[in-house]
Amino acid sequence: VGQQPISALMHAALARPHLISLAAGFVDQASLPVSETAAAFDELMAEAAAARAALQYGTNAGYLPLREAVLERLLAADGPSGRAPSVDQVVLTAGSNQLLHLVAEVLCDPGDIVLCAAPSYFVFLGQLHSLQVRAVGVEIDGEGLLPEALEEQLARLKQLGQADRVKAIYVTSYFDNPSTVTLSLARRRRVVEIAKRHGLYVIDDAAYRLLRYAGDDLPGLRQFDDDGSTVITAETFSKSFSPGVRVGWGFLPQALVAPVTGLKAHIDFGSPNLNQHLMATVLKRGLFEPHVDLLRARYRGKLAAMLAALDEHLSGIEGVRYSRPDGGLYVWLELPEGMPAGPGGGLVERALAEGVLYVPGEYCYPPEGPPALANRIRLSFGVQSEANIRRGIEALGRAIRQSG
Ligand SMILES: Cc1ncc(COP(=O)(O)O)c(C=O)c1O
What separation in Å is there between the alpha carbon of 96 and the centre of ligand 1? Predict the structure, then answer.
């Protein structure tokens, strides 16, 4: 199976308790919804029959009222599309990671291929690796996956006689982790059109959709999937409510409902029922939206603090550039040419000595496709206070100057 490359760095971080970690994709600690969760639990436990229903095993696909609620929210966000969706197409999972894993296992045999943005969410890349599925990278620009690069990669694989091994395209369509790029409206349409032409599925990972701090929402990729046969949508309450509750879900094309729920039945015959009842109560009682508004305000402040610190401490360093995202939890930073960010390259060791940790960008590149860029780093502003974000960026600035 192998270890995630990030685990060695996380151990190094644990050995230094005063380290400021801008690495982990954890959420803001102070705003975790304690009173909302307590209120929902109180209500859930107040009536014995309802409490017992929540404490019993649930169903494999998940608690129906929550599936109905997430479907209603998805349709409200995206607007109506071609085929009438059914609640049967919604499956609740233990975080969206479980949905991604189930889908990858259902779609792919060992040796099959998933085309992924280069760079991509490294946990999903690890899942593919553990399933012996090849992750092949596709170049991106400021609007996300490049359609021309997607077509080129498909043509190359066809030439190699491997076209039939390609099963899906994976994209984190809002504020990608780690590149922070949002797939533009025009590209959403193109990606679905290319997938359809080649008989592929699209896995639309919308984990950060609700964490938007500026600009207008965009429709999910399923909106461009006229007959509903192509796009798998993965969403989660981890970033918008609580990762400890770990409720995610998928909206599946009809043809995948039986295989995905069938596989899930073999694994756990249903994700934690109590947590699903809890989230249904949170939504029903109107506790969710105000919390997301609060999160947006907090993260907007943290992002501004990180960008201001970068402007102050790093913008003067030649060759340093960084993204200015409208949402999500990350900033993607480019170091001067020839300055490697990974272990053994000098910078990560100097940064640790200065008291700050980041994720080397090279961990986020699929093993095939465009080469991993060694001079990229992912910075997370989710978990640290604004004061620590400023201190962490100042420390990073010192480490970069020492490395130059
Ligand atoms: C792009 C992306 N997808 C999915 C997830 C999965 O989160 P969860 O399994 O908690 O829903 C994450 C978490 O960091 C993520 O960054």
Answer: 6
